[in-house]
Amino acid sequence: MSSFLHGCRYFILPLLITLMALTVIQVTEASWQIWDEIIRQLPYWLLSIAAAMALQFNRSRLAYLALLLLVFYVSKQSSAQVFTTLNNYSDELFIGGSILISWFAFIKDRGLVSSHGILRALGIIIGLGLGFIWLEAVEHFQAAIIANSPVSMTYQALTLVPIMFCFVFVLFRAIWRANLVSTSILTTLGIWIFYYLQPDTFPLAVLLSSLAVIYLFTILIDSYFLAYRDELTGLASRRALYNLVLSLGRKYSVAMLDIDHFKKFNDTYGHDVGDQVLRLVAAKMARVSGGGKVFRYGGEEFTIVFPRKDAQTILDDLEDVRESIEDYRIVLREDKRQNKSNTQAKAKRSKSRNAKTKTVSVTISIGVAERLGGESFDQAMKRADLALYRAKKKGRNQICL
Questions:
Q1: Active-site hit among 136, 300, 326, 334
Q2: Which of 115, 259, 362, 367 is deepest in the core (most CB within 10 A)?
Q3: Separation between Cα atoms, residue 122 and residue 304, nearest integer Å
């Protein structure tokens, strides 16, 4: 998948859907206000469910955020003395909450019941505490900052300085490491800031319920890709292949592809280089024309299914894939280290910057089979596998029917 499509799927599209949903909610405000009492109860249920599911699927950052937002909502709805006191520090909690949400964008998912859970709890306390520290510092040094600032600064602007930095950092993080969790955290921070600056535009229950739904979709979609996508290559997995089989019609063709001499290549250059080759080959295969759907079957073996196509029709498409892989040159740095004397070792280190490079290439063999009348998918794939075996026997780097 290209970086642009990756960014659209994991960054741009979720944000657009969120903005559209909030716009629809605002436009239809008169329609849903009659459900006000039910809507006010939704955050309790949705945030609790989101937290439970996030824990189940090892998305601890979303679990923490859902629980913290739930506590925040309870504090706004409850008349208990402890929450009433906290609400008197809304500015401090807003700044501390922004810092805390931003912190979650840069840490990794870890188990709650572990040493990491203790560190996360400490981080939450520190993050919230920084809000109090910042406002205390602003009040103490406000006059000096305003007097020495090259631009006109107000107290309100000074309080928003860490918020702007937090948003910029989280925005760049979400763009740089585009994934649904990062986008969800960015959305959380955006809605958190929006509620503070425009508290009367949307009810808090609506905003938090929207975030809970975003978390649930993030968890479900992420879990789907974990189950149906190969992590190394990004291609659909064997499980996805057999899901596709259920929707195939009577006419289709199957191609089995295998990287030639891959085990020898792995032994010669190492598994890291082997993984790079797998990603490269997968990227080339993903560009197959003719409506082919590419899957990583296992190891160095791949499968391409062409719905509603006969074998002769797809040969040119497969030949283009074979040639694109054969023609690609992979640049490797020589890193052969041997036990030598100290003098030789020092001499080698001094020349390491000028280390020679060389290029290598890989080829693939392809077997193709067209489904025959009354034949199951497994039988068609078995014949494609036999055709692949014939391509190997004939000298590799070719296509056999």
A1: 300
A2: 367
A3: 50
At 346-390, the pLDDT tens digits run 444 444 444 456 777 889 999 999 999 889 999 999 999 999 999
**If you count them, how many residues does the chain have?**
401
Q: Is 300 a known active-site residue?
A: yes
342 pLDDT exceeds 60? no
Distance from chain centroid for Cα 169? 18
CA atoms 143, 147, 153, 158: torsion sign: negative
165 neighbors 98 (Cβ within 8 angstroms): no
CA distance linking residue 344 with residue 340, whole number of Å: 6
What Å distances lie between residue 390 and 147, 322, 377, 381, 383, CA to CA?
82, 16, 20, 14, 11
- Please tell me the distance from the alpha carbon of residue 78 to that of residue 96, in angstroms, as a whole number: 21
How do residues 91-108 score in pLDDT, each as one tens digit?
899 999 999 999 999 998
Q: Which residues contact 364 (CB under 8 A, 6 or more apart)?
A: 257, 258, 259, 260, 281, 321, 322, 325, 326, 397
Angle between helices 115-148 and 90-106 in degrees, nearest 10: 120
Distance CA 120, CA 133 (A): 20
CB 80 within 8 A of CB 92: no
Cβ pair 363, 397 in contact under 8 A? yes
Kind of pairing between the strands at 252-259 and 364-370: antiparallel
Q: How far is CA 75 from the centre of its chain?
A: 33
**pLDDT surpassing 80 at residue 111:** no
Could you give the count of Cα atoms lying within 13 Å of 212 in the half-sphere of its Cβ?
A: 26
Of 194, 279, 285, 264, nearest in space to 232 by CA: 279
Q: Helix, strand, coil % (nearest 5) of the chain?
A: 70, 10, 20
Q: Which residue has the tokens 């797998």?
A: 278
